[in-house]
Write a structure and sequence with these properties.
The complex is a heterodimer of chains A (about 350) and B (about 110).
Chain A (H helix, E strand, L loop, with lengths): L8 E8 L5 H10 L6 E5 L12 E3 L18 H16 L7 E5 L7 H9 L7 E11 L3 H7 L1 H8 L3 E5 L6 H14 L4 E4 L7 H4 L11 H11 L14 E2 L2 E8 L5 H15 L3 E8 L8 E6 L2 E2 L3 E2 L10 E8 L3 H12 L10
Parallel strand pairs in A: 1-4, 1-5, 2-3, 2-4, 5-6, 6-7
Antiparallel strand pairs in A: 8-9, 9-14, 10-11, 10-14, 11-12, 11-13
Chain B lengths: L29 H19 L4 E6 L3 E6 L4 E4 L2 H12 L8 H11 L1
Antiparallel strand pairs in B: 1-2, 2-3
Chain lengths: ~350, ~110
């Protein structure tokens, strides 16, 4: 039985605002026979009933462990629930699930869930983040994003955005929402829940920056993110929504990994709240294969060693989705730090 | 252990992963690993000196961060350096600060 358990069980986080159709989407995903070996953790039982043999509620009476630094925050109750699942699977008490889906509450910030997976000393050896799916309601989504910062953040950290309730919205509403989502998160793939062709297995599949990802996935991601630096003919920046701004930086020379690490850790320490996403593919020099990086706020996932470049050009490329930060400031800062890659001048 | 959080086993920082010699080699090639740590310390010190602080390697496993007046803290990885640096110095360590960038440039010349 144990040989069926993956070394690192992929975990998909399903988030979305209150009433945006998370549970309905989950219900549909679980109805797919190919996803039957998915365990599910939910925060609360909502109005939509879920009937699944591997469904467990996350007890909310566990004390939260608020750690010293943001990237090490562990949500105690989530950690307990996942450890319990893992333990029962190992003992053979429950079927050997091969993936895990976590449905958050509508007002939840997805970030602490991601840091729990990253920082928990047990979980990090058995689970890995496969991606974040965010549902957005076509009828109310645009208005929610104007009124609730949580809603914007949920969309910004998504790897896949699923627009729901398009059957209840007029095409104009859906188009407006689509346009808003592309401003907030141009790198995410956007799908429609009502589509009869919705590929449920692909929704839970690895995202391009997982350890198991292959070149095609990264190519797909860069295709999506490729529009992150264009402006339309009227000079309007289509990648700006309020203070949320997406842009891509490209570098035709290798980036020094040591300096880059020092710069990004320093940036995230001071501005991690405002760096909603950072994703990139870096040429670290020395003829090495590219390194893909992927961060959400203060948290940076372990970089992935790519086998090859997704495109012919070997240029480093980093996409930022930021809230209230300026592209020019980040560009100037990174350039200034990269100049430190050369040795310091000798003292006179 | 993460010095800030008390979380055991927190030594797998993302900056330790890269396709370069010395970085992300745990039990092999100790010379390259030491060399990489020495370089990190050297580059970080060019920034920290602007805040009146100094970093040194501690046993090849952690870093020792000190102020000019002797306040010292051990930190586990690069991420924790900056939080500790702000705490020890009482100053904001902002890489976007134009004044810091100007000082770094002046120190290079």
């Amino acid at each position: 039985m144990t040989e069926a358990i993956p070394q690192f069980t992929p975990v998909t986080l399903l988030t979305g605002f209150l009433g945006s159709g998370k549970t309905t989407l989950l219900q549909r995903l679980l109805a797919d026979p190919s996803l039957a070996d998915t365990a599910v953790l939910i925060n609360e039982f909502g109005e939509v009933g879920l009937d699944h043999h591997l469904l467990q509620r996350i007890d909310d009476n566990t004390v939260l462990l608020q750690s010293g630094c943001v990237c090490c925050t562990i949500r105690g109750e989530l950690s307990d629930a996942m450890r319990d699942l893992h333990s029962r699977r190992s003992r053979g008490d429950i079927p050997p699930f091969r993936r895990l889906a976590i449905e958050t509450t509508g007002l939840a910030d997805p970030f602490p869930v991601l840091t729990t997976l990253h920082a928990d000393p047990v979980l990090k050896h058995h689970f890995r983040v496969a991606g974040v799916i965010t549902t957005v309601d076509a009828v109310n989504g645009s208005a929610q994003m104007l009124r609730y910062a949580e809603s914007v953040k949920q969309a910004a950290v998504a790897d896949r955005l699923v627009i729901t309730k398009t059957d209840l919205a007029d095409p104009e509403q859906t188009w407006k929402l689509l346009s808003t989502l592309k401003q907030i998160n141009p790198a995410a793939r956007i799908l429609y829940a009502a589509s009869p062709n919705l590929d449920t297995a692909a929704l839970l599949a690895d995202t391009p920056f997982d350890a198991g990802a292959h070149g095609d996935m990264v190519r797909e991601w860069f295709h999506e993110a490729g529009h992150a630096h264009h402006h339309d003919h009227a000079g309007h920046d289509p990648n700006r929504h309020g203070n949320i701004h997406a842009f891509a930086l490209t570098f035709d020379r290798p980036l020094d990994w040591t300096v880059f690490g020092i710069w990004l850790t320093m940036l995230l320490n001071r501005h991690g709240e405002q760096v909603l996403r950072v994703k990139g593919i870096l040429d670290v020099g020395g003829g090495s294969p590219p390194v893909a990086i992927h961060g959400v706020q203060h948290l940076v996932h372990p970089p992935v060693h790519m086998q090859d470049w997704p495109e012919a050009a070997r240029a480093s490329r980093i996409v930022f989705i930021v809230n209230g930060l300026q592209r020019a400031d980040i560009e100037a800062s990174l350039a200034g730090f990269m100049a430190l890659a050369s040795p310091a001048p000798a003292a006179a | 252990m993460c010095a800030l959080c008390g979380v055991l086993g927190g030594s797998d920082h993302w900056t330790d992963v890269a396709a370069r010699p010395g970085v992300f080699t745990r039990n092999t090639d100790p010379l390259e690993r030491r060399r990489e740590r020495a370089r990190r310390v050297s580059v970080a010190n060019r920034i920290l000196t602007q805040f009146g602080m100094r970093l040194s390697d501690w046993q090849g496993t952690s870093f020792q961060l000190s102020t000019l007046t002797g306040k010292t803290e051990l930190v586990e990885n690069l991420s924790h350096i900056w939080a500790s640096a702000e705490k020890l110095s009482g100053r904001v360590c902002d890489p976007l600060d134009p004044a810091l960038l100007r000082r770094l440039e002046a120190a290079r010349d």
